[in-house]
């Protein structure tokens, strides 16, 4: 079994990125290819794999719909995105609904994954969609994104989505079957790289420049390696594979040539390491002995166990968790801002909605967002 096939077989939450060149043809959606991908996503779901699709294509479809030529003008690109996004979602609806799957459109800008509060909101939405059995279909919100807040290409968007969703594998489908030590289109003896375990300067140099002259898409191999670097920092491995095979995902599973870029730790370990490394917590929660005992059994911190709230912090900020004597118990990300935490501390979860005016999270800190001393 190839390295890519092994990673694919063991994945439990997968982000699949497909570029415009694979999804569109002559200004129209390539329904035959999208239909095959829909079947393959359904097969993954059938064996318990959660799948998030990052789908390009809206701008390419919208240009054709509005009669626009390929243009560098931002306003025309935004208009094309607005006209093409519905066509793109129609294509995914057609591909997924025969298998009983519901596509759910998620449009993101860079601010959604770089501003803490918006990041948390996007993560909550993504988790809810997956829990409800939907297939999130993610694209950049080109209609409102300005040059300053754009990802620039969907490879980076896919990596940020993998980071957001705590996926264990990012699959980037391309027009080439992975990384080579030189461009195989101009170097027929270029060597294919099936496994990459570090993204050093030498590996990055193999990618050359971005494919700026591409007819449809905007990314090249370098953007894929940059995306892999982002995913890797979040504990997510990356597979770069050809999307031109008849059944691209099946081909990966069957051992077709592809490149696996490993991650040094799993997504949860990477997430916990990031939380544990918070050097400047914004506040402090004092918790009682019962809450400490519950945390040690793997439970979340509930408001009822919080005795005191010190400092000012927003939802998602890092806070220390201490016992009544001030001894450090751990560090975590607050599920509520300090003003709300003061209202709900010591209270039962059934009282939250009455106290703050809306339902909100049912915890003070979720166990996934908490690192105890000694962990």
Keywords:
375 residues, alpha/beta, Carbamate kinase, Archaeosine Trna-guanine Transglycosylase, Chain: A, domain 4, 2 domains, eight-stranded mixed beta sheet, five-stranded mixed beta sheet, 15 helices, 20% strand
Descriptive overview:
- It is a single chain.
- The chain has 375 residues and is an alpha/beta fold.
- It folds into 2 domains: 269 residues, Carbamate kinase; 96 residues, Roll (Archaeosine Trna-guanine Transglycosylase, Chain: A, domain 4).
- The chain is 39% helix and 20% strand.
- The strands form 4 sheets. The chain has an 8-stranded mixed beta sheet with strand order 5-6-4-1-7-11-12-10, with helices on both faces. Strands 14-13-15-16-17 form a 5-stranded mixed beta sheet, sandwiched between helices.
Report, as a whole number of angstroms, the end-to-end distance.
34 Å
Which CATH class of the largest domain is shown?
Answer: Alpha Beta
Strand count, sense and barrel status of the largest sheet are: 8 strands, mixed
Major sheet: order of its strands? 5-6-4-1-7-11-12-10
CATH architecture descriptor of the largest domain: 3-Layer(aba) Sandwich
> How many structural domains in the coordinates?
2
How many DSSP H or I helices? Answer: 15
Structure summary, number of beta strands: 17
Poorly predicted regions are 210-218
Q: Shape from CA axes?
A: globular
Mean pLDDT: 89
Radius of gyration: 22 Å
